[in-house]
Task: structure prediction
Amino acid sequence: MKTRNYLLLALGLWCFGSPNARADRREFLLEKGWRFTRTDDSAALRTDYDDSRWQTVTVPHDWAIYGPFNPNNDKQNVAIVQDGQVEPSEHAGRTGGLPFVGTGWYRTRFDVPEFGRDSTRRATLLFDGAMSGAQVWVNGQRVGEWPYGYNSFHFDVTPYLNADGMNNTVAVRLENLPESSRWYPGAGLYRNVHVVVTDGAHIPVWGTYVTTPVVNERFAKVNLKTEVILPETVETNRYRLVTEIRDSAGNKVAETTTRLTDYDEGVLTQDLVVDRPALWDLENPVLYTAVSKLYEGDDLKDEYSTPFGIRTIEVRPDDGFYLNGKKTVFKGVCNHHDLGPLGAAVNEAAIRRQVRMLKDMGANAIRTSHNMPAPELVRACDEMGMMLMVETFDEWRSPKCQNGYNRLFDDWAEKDLVNVIRHYRNAPSVVMWCIGNEVPEQGMEHGAKIAHWLQSIAHREDPTRPVTQGMDNPGAVINNNFAAVMEVPGFNYRPFMYPENYRKLPQRIILGTETASTLSSRGVYKFPVVRAAMKTYPDHQASSYDVEHCGWSNLPEDDFIQHEDLPYAIGEFVWTGFDYLGEPTPYYTNWPSHSSLFGIIDLAGIPKDRYYLYRSHWNPTEETLHILPHWTWPEERIGDTIPVFVYTNYPSAELFINGVSQGIRTKDTTIRVEGSYTKEAQASFERQKRYRLMWMDTKYEPGTVRVVAYDSTGRAMATEEIRTAGKPHRIELTADRTVLDATGKDLSFINVRVVDKEGNLCPEDTREIRFKVKGAGSYRAAANGNPASLELFHLPQMKLFSGQLTAIVQSAEAPGEIVFEATAPGVKGAKLTLQAK
Ligand code: GAL
Result:
């Protein structure tokens, strides 16, 4: 009993503040117990509305990811102009084939007990993102709207709260229009919703701006601009702002105090010095924290923390991008925001797994195509050492989709740009802003003026980062000033035009904002092995020999060669790191295709062969030695030509089939970008020979394929082998993480595969696997990476695709053991035990 009273007292002090003790800031998430419906009923904004029949959901929530898939969910009768289509045709699955179109309502209640005790308190509702057309009411009163589904926004809801601060109802209406997207956008409150309670005197949301104008080995000058809001009637000079900088261990390394007599239009400027700063970089992403404390006399009114990094960035003409004075070529990927089987619903564990895999591949940057990222991604990149190019728009004023951002551009573009920059301008991972992607204005006379306007807003809000945009119409943009106004000219595709673009443009650099768009399906191999554009097959797949692309795009090496050989080419962002829902190009009208084939990694998060090609080129510190295709073909294929490719960072290798040498292949480094764009080279694997080792004439016979990699002196350095698999024998399970946080949100991604007696993957197995989860966790979803599979992600069964799939297990809030079980007819099942702590 006694303990309980103490606890209550402590909680009271914490909530309501006590003199000289704690700041009056409290932040919490609105996660559990939301009510949700797809019925459009505007009476739902009333506080006395009965929502008890609505579904109970936890936010982040994506209402559309539960399906079912149906081509009528998102039929678009359009011509995709940027893909070269002239006549409209009926597209199915372009946005994932999931039911995101329409209206959704969410309601919940929250308490701000501080209000009843202290009339000077303020409350803010902060949405990390709501898809889309958000309209918000608190206690039946309209608070505001934010139409763009990807941006974060916030409202001061103080005037709308109940006098005692208790039992406030928030109602959110969202509406997704048909033909509003080129990919799966998700639907609903798919990112977090925060309540921020402060004193009247406080630092508002995104109220700090940290820059490091001088950085050297001895010291860093840290400049802080802090917005301070005071109640109207107070005496300003009773307030002071104390800013401390803490290192990553929490030690105070600098401090300064400013009295608010210097208070100038609500923004205070402070300069601090950090001695011998530890820099934020890709290997060692050191973070500092600026802690801003606002005092009235001796009362701490607010305490606001800003994580930041100390680092320099610079773009040097004819040279490259420099991070901390070190030349750093962008080895980047573009990613859409969806998390495959989780849909758009944000999840930190899923995001961190993506970043981990990309880092292992050697990637150093992500482009958040074509919209604002979730804060969880930015934080992960800050903490894990990954650069971000943060993008805002896929459309300006001219439509690509009838109901896309074009409807909002004139009224919202500046507000949207300001919000994303204020939100993320302290993140060291963010190294560039990207104001657009392939906007139709590229070819229009006024286009350059809009580009200039948006770039100036970015510069006004954050003069420290360069600005780019992705342009895919070089013919137009180098002649009409559109590319010339950009600080960093970014080109999507057509790498063979870089030299001409460079010659005509003033900036003396070229960024590959979007590259490759190579197509492949994990574990699917097509014959004969030839380079092909827009190739389609009855099975809706593309070849994993990595030889297929779109009409406008190319193979990975066609970009590698540019960024290696041209001193002004500063790196690339591959389309895409991960497969995403929607845009099943080259399958446009071919239901059930409904997710992309562009990913280096599939929708289940399983690497395709291409992963190892990028890894061999991008990750110099880890050994890569990867053989493709698999070697388990039907008997009637014995004697057929089945080429073998090897992706490795060694310069040469020898291939053996059942012990018989098939010869040595060596990367041909004499192939340079100059002269490699002849018609013949374009139709063959000319540029590929510099980066991949290819045995085009090998004949199939069951057994073992073994590769021995040699260094430049011919010394054997490493070997790898694959074997013909026997009969399917058992299920094998491997988790990405076996110890989870008992938060109710943490996830383990479990690779599920069928293997033979010896443990060889059965590469064409498609049997259905059933899952059970017991103990301190639950089954969340599964995916197999098949872009034409209509199986629902959230059901506890799924068919293997090319022998594998990924099942996702979520921790409960209580610690304990989680047992995951997978069974299937005809093979031995498997169990895996995880821990939630
Ligand atoms: C680009 C576009 C991307 C995606 C890609 C497919 O033109 O920017 O969003 O559509 O093509 O190759």
Remarks:
- The domain at 4-19+203-310 is CATH 2.60.40.10 (Immunoglobulin-like).
- The chain has five domains: 4-19+203-310, 31-59+105-198, 315-517+551-580+606-622, 626-723, 730-836.
